[in-house]
Sensor histidine kinase inhibitor, KipI family (Ectopseudomonas guguanensis), 234 residues
Amino acid sequence: MTPRIEVVGIDSLILRLFEQIEESNMPWLLAASERLRTVFGPALVDLVPSYTTLLLHYDLQQLDDRQARALIAQAFDNLSPQAESSGRELQIPVWYHPSVGPELALLGQRSGLGSDGVIERHSARSYQVFALGFAPGFAFMGLVDECLASPRLSTPRQRVAAGSLGIADRQTAIYPLVSPGGWNLIGRSPSQLFDRQLDGYSLLRPGDRVRFVPIERDEFVRLGGDDTPFEVTP
């Protein structure tokens, strides 16, 4: 595999490995990340994986562009995908309900599954964590069932509650903090995804697999969830 290298800064390069989002990309991205960390050593400032790319930030005091590219070529020489995922399997509880997931009914109508069908379909599979971004602890996961795929809201909300679970296209994610956002919200989790006590501050890391477990409101509250309604519902 030979990545396409794009300059994004005097000390940063984008390594483009793929053109399309596929779960099969992740073993290659993880293998490449591990090899790059090894060959760059202390000259590596940061390495950020995405669905199809790696953002590599190196120390200009230790390397110039030519040397960085030589190390990248070394890292990708005879690279093989990881045979098994190095990520963890996690279960995250979610209270799927229209009072905290205002688009749950809408997705039920669009898909023809109804709200219960959306819950069943969304929680029936595990999701690959592809990347972290947008906000600390915000994990981009996929791929959701095609019948649940929905475009982002035309007008993003100014405030989305922490723990809100959403869908955008074939991605799904939980907002770790209160923030603006335009994803279709279908529930809320009591889990804390961003915590300064955690390694890397994030509960989730690229390569992890996540399954969402439906829970009732009482369990949601018992686990520390905030059941304040997002919108007034009938």
Observations:
- The two ends are 55 Å apart (CA to CA).
- The chain has a mean pLDDT of 91.
- The longest helix spans residues 25-40.
